[in-house]
């Protein structure tokens, strides 16, 4: 079968299983991954991974990361860094990352594979967190603000770190690794300076000048919604090109490019138009195909060593809850609130799977570890809501209403 037929099968299967899982109270992501598992080589062998399919998956990753950047604001990130969220995120990131290195070393995994484990352990899936907080009425609470701020910072940390380590191949000795990390960090600092300068230019030259505002409004009116989306994609592609020129993965540029295109700079109308078009493409087409493609690569080797599977899942789960909970405790939350923050920040199922897929495609992890990371994300989608409900006392308003992620 050709790639068009494969896309049709993946999209139809992902949408069907995604809707079914949502109807019975689970995440659509679980259904989409299961669809790929059933259609792929593991079960029916109806869809096979291919170079053409991988190209479409890369496009999906690009636009998904672009969309993630649009959901955030650079000024909000700076504000979160100055608040309690910083300690929660730092504690959760460091604790989880070291736990991943430790469990990888315990099982004799290569150093880079252990590093990927640590990075995937550390990531918080922002879209899942937003859905989680909506379900439990946490958005406008003190605890919700800490969770959201920490989630944003964790995503930024993870993407920056990913941009560094994805360029370090076939290095097994930690000292050599950290030497190369240092040189890569210098390039990342240069890129971050570029981001700051572009942000300053956009805010000073475009936002404060009435003539510039009128030009943007006229362009929006003349070119239409589709052209605004196209202009945004071109802008983000320029940033992705810059990151690749500096030796980093294109998703770093996609994220920060989206981060700069906020409502204050391009205007509410243009922003809403761009977001609407982007979400239509990603939510209805590319995102289901991406998660279904994850299932294509799933291997039953994940169950060959039950002790490895359970230990990785257990360490991933506990390290994030404990690490983030400790940080929340340090900044003044009580024990029950700290445990809730830790559980919420343990949300997985989007960026962690993107990182795992990229690492697998580059050969940083084998199919067994990749499949174990998939199991870890799926387990989180099931366990998190149940565990959170156990921390809610009857009549405790700070816990929020019960719901299902």
Care to describe what's here?
- This protein has 405 residues and is an all-alpha fold.
- It has 18 helices and no strands.
- It has helices spanning 3-23, 28-39, 51-70, 74-81, 85-106, 111-122, 126-135, 142-165, 174-207, 210-223, 225-245, 250-260, 263-266, 268-296, 306-330, 335-345, 351-361, 367-390.
- It starts with a helix and ends in a 15-residue tail after the last helix.
The gist of it:
The chain has 18 helices and no strands.
Write the layout of secondary structure elements.
Elements lengths: L2 H21 L4 H12 L11 H20 L3 H8 L3 H22 L4 H12 L3 H10 L6 H24 L8 H34 L2 H14 L1 H21 L4 H11 L2 H4 L1 H29 L9 H25 L4 H11 L5 H11 L5 H24 L15
Helix pairs in contact: 1-2, 1-14, 2-14, 3-12, 3-14, 4-8, 5-6, 5-8, 5-15, 6-8, 6-15, 6-17, 7-8, 8-9, 8-12, 8-16, 10-11, 11-12, 11-14, 15-16, 15-18, 17-18
Rg of Cα set: 21 Å
How many separate helices? Answer: 18
Main sheet characteristics: none
Helix content: over 70%
> How far apart, in Å, are the first and last alpha carbons?
36 Å
> What form results from the Cα inertia axes?
globular
Structural class, from secondary structure content?
mainly alpha
Order of helices and strands: HHHHHHHHHHHHHHHHHH
Estimate the strand proportion.
Answer: under 5%
On the 0 to 100 scale, the average pLDDT is 83
Give unreliable regions as ranges: 400-405
Q: Using DSSP, what is the number of strands?
A: 0
